[in-house]
Design goal:
Blueprint: E1 2-9, E2 15-22, H1 25-34, E3 38-44, H2 47-51, H3 56-61, H4 67-82, H5 87-97, H6 101-115, H7 120-125, H8 133-145, H9 148-203, H10 211-245, H11 248-258, H12 264-285, H13 290-298, H14 304-318, H15 323-330, H16 335-347, H17 350-370, H18 372-408
Antiparallel strand pairs: 1-2, 1-3
Helix pairs in contact: 4-5, 4-9, 5-6, 8-9, 9-10, 9-12, 9-17, 9-18, 10-18, 12-13, 12-17, 13-14, 14-15, 15-16, 16-17
Length: 409
Amino acid sequence: MSSYAWRGRDPRGELVQGVIDADTDDAVADQLLAIGVTPLAITTKTDTAAHAPQSTWQALRAAPVSGLDLLVFSRQMYTLQKAGVPILRALAGLQASTDKRSLIQVIADLRAGLDQGRELATAMARHPAVFDGFYVAMIRVGEMTGRLTEAFGRLAEHIESELDLRERVKQALRYPTMVMVAIAIALVVVNVFVIPTFATVFAGFKAELPLLTRALLGFSNWMLRWWPLLLAAVIGGGWALKAWLATPAGRYRWDRAKLRLPVAGPIVLKATLARFARSFAMASRSGVPITRAMTVVAQTVDNAWVGERIERMRDGVERGESLSRCAAASGVFTPIVLQMITVGEETGELDTLLIEIAEMYERDTDYAIKGLSASIEPLLLAVIGVFVLLLALGIFMPLWNLGQAARGG
């Protein structure tokens, strides 16, 4: 497959141009005609241009496919399929209209796979970094049942809900993170620039300094002397932590520890369970077998500990136990949620009640996020107050004592 630069006129007669990956220039012309563009010139891109250093704009265009890109792709596919556009023509139109190089390559590979007789889900499975197991499973069920349009629509709603939920969780953790970073920066500045200046003044007192002042001076001297080793320790610790989190055991323990955090833990748990309930409801409503649905959902909840509990639920269902019994044994759901799952099994409306569970958890997450600042603000103010108090007493007490002695003399 080669890259072709093209120029043409759109249905309004305006001059447009771009680059398309295709096997032949005839295939490029077919793609352009499919989206209503009249080709004027189609040329093969030279190797020099292909190997030229990338500009900043080209580097941004080659960035990985993001969740927002996948959302737009799913919505566009839903709209085109709903309008009756054949899937190959729809993909060709999306490939010609997008500006992101990485997404163009993915769509081009999807089209090539369909041309070779593959199913769309199989072609998508070749790009696990873009289409996760849940996405592929939904597309496969849509192809099998003839409801591909509905599958794209539900996936678009699901991705939009996911992005919104993750953004709210990030927003909840953003304020305390910024405050702690500011405290760390202030600590470094005070120990490197402020305290050494006062140390010179204190050296001229020729008097015994208070214990707190001696402790601050000692810590500042230690930091100035060993800062290269301290910096190396911080960088090495960060690298080691990242490597540890990349292991299954490290990811499992970290995800479990996140849920036990005093303030943010309950928010993360509710957001994760909302993601599970909505994903499971969509898979169940689309006709995915329950055990298969739980397998793919366990991989998409973005928490290894909760995912392991979902896999235990799947194993129990495979042994013939009821879903409500397995959910109760998992230890992650509240009694009211367990009651709703039980009612859903008895009435055959499990997917509907799972949607209600997801909405309930999402509402709880919203309320918790709105009250997060009020909950942690006193704690952060207390930390800042203690830091300022120690600094003020350690630096100004000797100056105050000197003034008292001078007045007494």
